[in-house]
Amino acid sequence: MNALGQYLVNGLMLGMVYAMVAVGFTLFFGVLDVIQFSHGDVLMVGAFAGLAASLGVSALGIGSPWLQLVAVVACATILTGLLGAAIARFLILPLHRAPPLNTLLATLMLGSVLRECVRLFYPDGANPNTFPALLPGSSVQLGGFALRVDNIILLLAGLAVIVGLHLLITRTRLGLSIRAVAQDGETARLMGINFGAVVLLTFGLGSAIAALAGVMNGLYYNEINFNEGLLLGVIGFSAAILGGLGNIYGAILGGFLFAGLEVLGSAALPTLVPDIPSAYKDVFAFAVVIVLMTWKPTGLIAEQMSERV
Amino acid sequence: MSTMPPSHAGSRGSVALQIALAVVMTAYLWLFLQAKSQIEVCVLLALAAAAVFAASRFGLTRRIEAASRASPGAGPWCALLATLALIAAFYDVHYVLLLICTVLLFSTACLGLTVQFGYVGIANFAGAAFFGIGSYTIAVLAARTGISHLLLILLSGVVSAAIGSILILPVLRTRGHYAALVTIAFGVLFHTFVEVNNVLGGPQGLRLPGIATFGYAFNDGFELFDQDVSFYVPYALLSLVIFGAAYITIKRLERSWIGLSMDVVRTDETAAAAFGIHIARWKVVAFMLGNFLAGVAGSVYGMMIGFVSPDNFTFSDSLLLVSIAVLGGLGNPLGLVPAAFIVLVLPQKLQFIQEYRFLFYAAVVIAILLFRNDGLLPRRTRQFFNNEASR
């Protein structure tokens, strides 16, 4: 019971982080049909910005963890939001008319730049950094299972972000503009929507959500690393594509699916085949992704498209 | 075009021009490779930049291009002789020979990527994985079997292509970003697999014996005219042979109807299908051939270094291969060598770049994509005829 519960919480937590990364990928793909592959590293930059903020706040002598948390979240989201908008303005939009491979490659390389910048220029960036535990560490007894309060808070926060995003997309004027641009950029422009502004806002929004995911990840594992963004980016991209690019609900589904696969891999593989260590969980998860891609080449919730000849 | 000289009169001149170019390049590379101090390297780089600028400013670039079109046979021979001259000049300097081998082998692997990216348009972001499969295959087979090492090099390529073939179905069924994901997932999968697999040495990796063939071990080195010759010389010669063979194959392929079909598949699949071109066939051929080349290059590289570990085959290394292919000009086999030189040798020579190596080449690739999006030496439209008259 205890182990099962732990697997469940772990899976939900991972799924929440993956879904939040995947949502960014799918938002960007929706508005511009591009893959912003430095997304994972933007997440990492957000986490490091949060870490810097928490260190700065404690250096000012503010001890309250809640105030620190506010500073961490604010600093991470604002900085990363600006970074995302800047990426769109100076890299994605100029390359908009180029072949898709060029954009993919340019953003992959930008990911390397961000990663290397943190490794080389952040103080002690090359080593794993401890992320401060800002949430209460007590736990609630639930049957035979001890549920930690910080896990509940993180899960609820992630849920709030996803619900908030859903409301933003479906209920607000900005969401309407985003959907219009995603549907057809040219027509949206003709209807008087400020195309450039919507694109920049979308990239800022997606990147800010990634920063939140990075902070959540840091709070959960109490450690951040300069190269964690790469794998998180690849996983987020996989999740977005599993669900079907351009579909936010598909991305969320894909995120939880991928987390489920990983947890299943680490939990079930050693019991099924005794010789296999649980470290094969990533191998298992990515193998399933390849198989799923073969079965459904455009994702589980496929983008509606047709080709006229 | 109208300024191009008539083919007969220009033929001898164009050969002379190409030979002169080869001599200048060889001299420059010789100076560059043996430059010791940072200042020398910087001066040489500035010189190269100035020369390139001046050449394009005063129309020399166009004349060189016209010359290589007028007598296409001369260029490859010049390049071959120039490389041999460089190997001979540095016959006892291990480090420089290692750099030359690395450039040649990585260029070979990137020739494979060129077929995949540049000809049929399959995005392969697992280049390092196929390179690594070659290294690991030869590591295991050389330790466990007594098969001739030269045969093992070919076999490593075959194994690499065979393991790659499990990706064929997903690669054929998916397009664009979705296909990119499949190869990225495979690359990550491969890296995690060798890292946790104890049979393949886990994170520590495996040791490899050097290549031994016809009773002669490459790693022993040898004496020629009472001079100790570096043991890297045989590796350099082998790498040169492999690169040359791969280059000729790819060039032939490009100029044949196969290359033409591949180009159509890349530019417009629907049109290709409408013209009765078998899309799947050419995608499979290109994918297998590319992975074969990567595997062959990887096996020789592994034997040369004497050591394989998972850390050499990460996603970043795949990106390094891709950036060489893009830097050289996608689909242009000729551009790969200078691009590989820039990506692999420049950071080694400029010590202050060493630490910033990945940052440096990533920034360079971004700049190229933004400002010169065809790469350093863009691919030209194919020309089947040498002179105007036959058009």
From TrEMBL, chain A:
Belongs to the binding-protein-dependent transport system permease family. LivHM subfamily. It is found in: Cell membrane. It holds the Pfam family BPD_transp_2. It comes from Pandoraea thiooxydans. The keyword Cell inner membrane applies. PANTHER family: BRANCHED-CHAIN AMINO ACID TRANSPORT SYSTEM PERMEASE PROTEIN LIVH, HIGH-AFFINITY BRANCHED-CHAIN AMINO ACID TRANSPORT SYSTEM PERMEASE PROTEIN LIVH. GO terms for molecular function: L-isoleucine transmembrane transporter activity; L-leucine transmembrane transporter activity; L-phenylalanine transmembrane transporter activity; L-valine transmembrane transporter activity. The chain crosses the membrane at residues 12-35, 42-63, 69-92, 152-169, 190-214, 226-245, 252-271, 283-302. This is ABC transporter permease. One of its GO terms (cellular component) is plasma membrane. Coiled coil: none annotated. InterPro entries: ABC_transp_permease (IPR001851), BCAA_transport_permease (IPR052157). Keywords: Amino-acid transport, Cell inner membrane, Cell membrane, Membrane, Transmembrane, Transmembrane helix, Transport. It is a multi-pass membrane protein. GO terms for biological process: D-alanine transmembrane transport; L-alanine transport; L-isoleucine import across plasma membrane.
